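pinned: reference chain
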Amino acid sequence: MNTESRSDWRDHGVKIIPANELDRNTLQTPGMTRAAAINHARAGASKIWAGTVEIHPNAKTGPHHHGELETVIYVISGRARMRWGERLEFFADAGAGDFIYVPPFVPHQEINALVNERLMCVVVRSDQETVVVNLDIPTVEQPEEVLWIDPTHPKP
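pinned: its structure tokens
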């Protein structure tokens, strides 16, 4: 291993982004606060974006989607109610430790299902583009609950 490679790793290797230095200068959706941790400008990432999302007690975001991007949400604390669909006609709940996957172009809305506790999540997206398309869509009054199951896990 030569000295030049080690120097490269020093400056272009692992990055630690302190929690108090997240960048809130990112696209926002009403009802939530996004803060970027990992992107090209901050960490040199070229294929992913990661950050945090905070939703205040008893609050909800406006309907939106993220274009071609795939999104993974990890719930740190609180209770997330996700609504999705053309009229936000479906919903499911997620708690601390749960993961949420949002496919490309799916209209969705994040809701803090708790009235006394903030909802804190980590968000990871499949690209550097910070695509947020806020939507003005009619919503159904009584969405249908969808249980999160897959072929390898039976219904609860």
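why pinned: The first helix runs from residue 3 to 12. Helices lie at 3-12, 40-43.
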